[in-house]
Amino acid sequence: MNILADGGVTTPKGFLAGTAYADIKGNNAGKADVALLYSERPCTAAGVFTQNKFSAAPVHWSREIIADAQARAIVVNSGNANAGTGDQGYSDAAQMAALAAEHLGLDRREVLVASTGVIGVPLPMDRMWRGISASKPTAAGSHDFAVAIMTTDTVPKLGAVSVQLPDGTVGHIGGTCKGVGMIHPDMATMLGFLTTDFAVERQFLQQALKAAADRSFNMVTVDGDTSTNDTLLILANGACGNPPISEESDAATTFQNALDELCVYLCKKIARDGEGATKLIEVEVRGAATLQDARLAARTIASSPLVKTAVYGNDPNWGRLLAAAGRSGADLDPNKVDAFIGDICLMRAGQPQAYDHALAVATMKQELVQLKLHLHLGEAFAIGWGCDLTEEYVHINADYTT
Amino acid sequence: MNILADGGVTTPKGFLAGTAYADIKGNNAGKADVALLYSERPCTAAGVFTQNKFSAAPVHWSREIIADAQARAIVVNSGNANAGTGDQGYSDAAQMAALAAEHLGLDRREVLVASTGVIGVPLPMDRMWRGISASKPTAAGSHDFAVAIMTTDTVPKLGAVSVQLPDGTVGHIGGTCKGVGMIHPDMATMLGFLTTDFAVERQFLQQALKAAADRSFNMVTVDGDTSTNDTLLILANGACGNPPISEESDAATTFQNALDELCVYLCKKIARDGEGATKLIEVEVRGAATLQDARLAARTIASSPLVKTAVYGNDPNWGRLLAAAGRSGADLDPNKVDAFIGDICLMRAGQPQAYDHALAVATMKQELVQLKLHLHLGEAFAIGWGCDLTEEYVHINADYTT
Fold this sequence. Notes:
Two copies of one chain form a homodimer.
Chain A: E1 3-4, E2 15-20, E3 34-49, H1 57-68, E4 71-80, H2 86-104, E5 111-118, H3 125-134, H4 142-148, E6 157-164, E7 170-178, E8 191-196, H5 202-215, E9 231-236, H6 251-272, E10 280-288, H7 291-303, H8 305-312, H9 318-327, E11 338-341, E12 344-348, E13 351-352, H10 357-364, E14 368-374, E15 380-387, H11 391-398
Parallel strand pairs in A: 4-5, 8-9, 10-14
Antiparallel strand pairs in A: 1-6, 2-3, 3-4, 3-9, 6-7, 7-8, 10-15, 11-12, 11-14, 12-13
Helix pairs in contact in A: 1-2, 2-3, 5-6, 7-9
């Protein structure tokens, strides 16, 4: 399996994407901000969504569609989250689905909806309609789709994997995502869209998506703030003609591994492009008593403002690493812990080690900074991703709506 | 009851404080960094400590002393946390107590120890001894004590209250604290020291201190990072000659209220002086189903990087307030929530309200920014305190050890 860096949501057969500029935010940004994804064939669909209790209107809509129907299209806008918009918000989300359905010749209950941007401002539905009707989905639309869903992202995030199933069928999984702030997903990330031309049985598709999200998007953090709009969707259109993959299929593991690989690839792009970030932080926690402990410790370290500023300052201040692990809630015994920056051991079995300070600083100046803990309590293992905290994060967020 | 802003740990009768400069950090800072607090009479003592699993050596020592003995003195150093220092750390903390005991003519098991500063560097015990032996406790030492325990604090934090018990006895509670980063206390704050000349029965003293901490220090957050060294101690020396206050005493409520008032006064000084902060954020959550929910929501809002940057930018981005409440874990119904900035209503029963944007911006330009939520689910109420997040926070923390 290899990542196709120039692949995306239209790499799998039978998927088309189109975008338009509708000035959804009303600030004449000029960048495309409405995006349509369309499958030429009916799909099974699965999704994971934010756990934030203020989940946005499009999340409510898409949860319903995922729960009780097939889907064939996704309509997305950037610039406005349609969150905190009360009853009007739900009605606008349903209307977005209806407008996209009308444009594509579908039923509105085949259309999933996602929105991202400012919270608390009603959607401009007139401009939305102009954007949707101007979108012309094509098989070459991956890159434009990835651009249209961006907000403060500085780079589009897309990729695909080519997969051969045990029976010889060759197909693809493609994906794209956005999000660089309010990132601390609690089921999925801000917005992520995946497609595959394999046939996949619905229940297994949901289970595989959740498992992949738990290993990827749910282990990314930029600022510890869980969004109201987190949504990760997958459409499987069966264009490959394979027998639908289910949990019992020989192909299940192959499919899961490919999905995991693509999701990890995409989620690292989120952390690397975190608001104001100059570095990707990768936190490895080994030897935890439980998977939950390993995940808790990795996420807490990756989200600690003090760890993040130390990484920005190339400061091997490993005390902050331990302090974050210690408050994470993960079970640990201070007298057993080993700690590393890259391959440099800073603490062994709870005792500080002499280390080459200049080498540690040089290691931290890399664009990828690896922080590792071994808890020596069990076999569980997790990796989390984050980014450094810089003055630029403050600049970006001190003046977002105004 | 009125706060005596120029009072401190030596305002209650029979308490003396002294400090010295020992260059504990080894950077020729020149500021006093060793502090001694001494009671002329035996005291009952109580303490609450960090829940961080990497709790520091002095925390281990002081927990033991609080558990099994009376105390008469506290020795404190700034510049070095004596945390992450392995077995050597515990032996150094015990040695600090022994050196202070020798200097003051006490048994070492009457001496509590607290340290704050860099994690992972052994204490310089030779300089520690010179500092302790140079400290000359006096009844005028409150202010110097508050200065000596500071690290990145920009102002000393101290105060006292004068209290008349129902039987007519007049006495005092004095206190001081430090800490402006790694502030998200999980039992107490970085370091806080309280004294009183009332006689207080030990069990009630512990219970009253825990209750006061839960309403004050445990509701302050600067950056969400719980310190390894959080310690809040109180010594009650009985110099007033009152019958020891117990839970059943008429004086119990009077004492608790005074202690609460002083702790809230001190903890707001921490938030206001948060690293890089320009404003104090006060988050009020009313109408929660449980006290735990109210506290969770208030703390989560006060610690959200997106709320903090919005306050810095005078941006009435109330969506971030709701998003933080929604991820806090507190029970809430989005369709019941009212939200306010100061007295300006931005959302009522989950529906966005029209509001005067210019007035909201002006309200956020005040040095105290009040954010209020009413959940309309019950009667529980909590207040949390935090500060804005600025470029200066990043500057301070990107280059702390080096």
